[in-house]
Write a structure and sequence with these properties.
alpha+beta, Aminopeptidase, Alpha-Beta Plaits, 6-stranded mixed β-sheet, 4-stranded antiparallel β-sheet, 10 helices, 34% helix, binds zinc ion, hydrolase
Length: 402
């Protein structure tokens, strides 16, 4: 740690692995799959207790309403857990935001529910890397930062629905991100410990298509085949693919018995634009394709969905933040490399607010979203030190270096 001045060394000296690991194990033992509302409520209570160690006020915020299209083309409300917000020094002129999520991809009935050690440094368990370890790191880093005469204000947001796209927390993310100096998000590092740079956007869509049913033998000419229209639309969407835009027609629901012209189909697809320009082009293409299919098949189409994860571009401010974190990591003796990635996360939503965001501040580990998920325990205290040092330097330098 030769790159640290005396004040920084004193700030980081008390950071220890054991309490961070204790929190990680405690939280990973609670199932908090995105649909497990009881588990999420239990997690929110534990987190509220733990984050109460910081100054400021913890509150739980109700999820925004979210609708989903079912196989009959009807919209239904999807329930979500509450989101945790901690606001510290809200009056401060310079404020940052730190975010994470309390949900995991493992439902209550998933076989992967408990932690075990694969070796002295490798903790195998659900949500260890993604991201209960990350939440524990964030808390420990903030606690260390608070011991160093802090002046930055900050909001902590821990949402309950990140793994299904943050649809019920997106307005809250945007609200809290706005006007912040910088953002740190505690997703795990990429495999091999690399930090994520640019990310594409992502949008999930459902197109409900209503045609007209008719007898397949007696009067098929009176029918308007919704299934054919859905297939036509799927082909037109697939033809939109180009560099910087992937489109995946994923599922068609609906249809009718063999003797009937089907009057209902629902086409689900995902779209990933690399840039905001590609996203706008793609949206225009979708609108045009829907109009063409409507005219060609004489059916009604209703499009649900949008690019809910806007593309995360790298700006000068982002580069400045990454430079600051790189320098801090180097001064701590923690090697750091960087890479663009195809995945999306809340960093996308934060970047869309014009706030520079580093969204892989969490632990090192791997095999996330699988029964092999693990975290490397020595990254717990290492990343907590990094968090504290980055906040301390943001505080002392006043602005991001350029
Ligand atoms: Zn995650």
């Amino acid at each position: 740690m030769s790159g640290l001045n005396f004040e920084e060394q004193a700030l980081l000296a008390p950071v220890e692995r054991a309490p961070i690991l204790t929190h990680t194990l405690d939280w990973a033992a609670i199932n908090s799959g995105t649909a497990n509302l009881d588990g999420l409520a239990a997690m929110a209570t534990r987190l509220a207790d733990a984050f109460a160690a910081l100054p400021g006020e913890v509150r739980l915020v109700d999820p925004a309403p979210v609708e989903k299209v079912d196989s009959q083309g009807r919209t239904r409300e999807v329930v979500h857990g509450r989101h945790l917000v901690l606001s510290v020094r809200p009056e401060a002129e310079r404020r940052v935001i730190l975010t994470g999520h309390m949900d995991t991809v493992y439902p209550l009935d998933h076989p992967f529910q408990i932690c075990d050690w694969l070796d002295a440094n490798t903790l195998h368990g659900p949500g260890t890397a993604d991201m209960k370890g990350g939440l524990a790191v964030m808390l420990a880093g903030l606690a260390a930062y608070e011991r160093g005469d802090p002046t930055l204000g900050y909001d902590v947001l821990v949402n309950s629905d990140e793994e299904t796209g943050s649809l019920s927390s997106a307005p809250l993310i945007a609200d809290l991100a706005r006007g912040k100096l910088a953002a740190l998000t505690y997703e795990p590092a990429l495999p091999g410990g690399q930090m994520a740079r640019a990310r594409p956007g992502s949008g999930n869509y459902a197109v409900v298509i209503h045609g007209r049913s008719a007898h397949a033998g007696r009067n098929p000419e009176d029918g308007r085949n919704a299934l054919l229209a859905a297939s036509d639309l799927a082909l037109r969407l697939a033809a939109m693919r180009r560099p910087g835009l992937s489109v995946n027609p994923a599922k068609i629901e609906g249809g009718a018995p063999n003797n009937t012209v089907p009057d209902l189909a629902v086409l689900h697809f995902n779209m990933r634009p690399a840039t905001p320009e590609r996203a706008a082009e793609a949206q225009a293409h979708i609108t045009a394709a829907v109009a063409q299919v409507s005219a060609a098949h004489e059916v009604h189409l209703h499009v649900h969905g949008h690019v809910s994860r806007p593309p995360k571009a790298i700006t000068d401010k982002t580069e400045a933040l990454y430079g600051l974190v790189s320098k801090a990591a180097a001064d701590l003796g923690q090697p750091m490399s960087w890479k663009d990635t195809g995945g999306v996360c809340d960093g996308n939503n934060i970047a869309a607010c014009g706030v520079p965001v580093l969204d892989t501040m969490g632990v090192l580990g791997g095999s996330i979203h699988s029964p092999d998920e693990y975290l490397l325990a020595d990254s717990l205290d290492a990343r907590a030190r990094l968090t504290a040092l980055v906040l301390h330097r943001l505080d002392r330098h006043g602005v991001l270096p350029t």
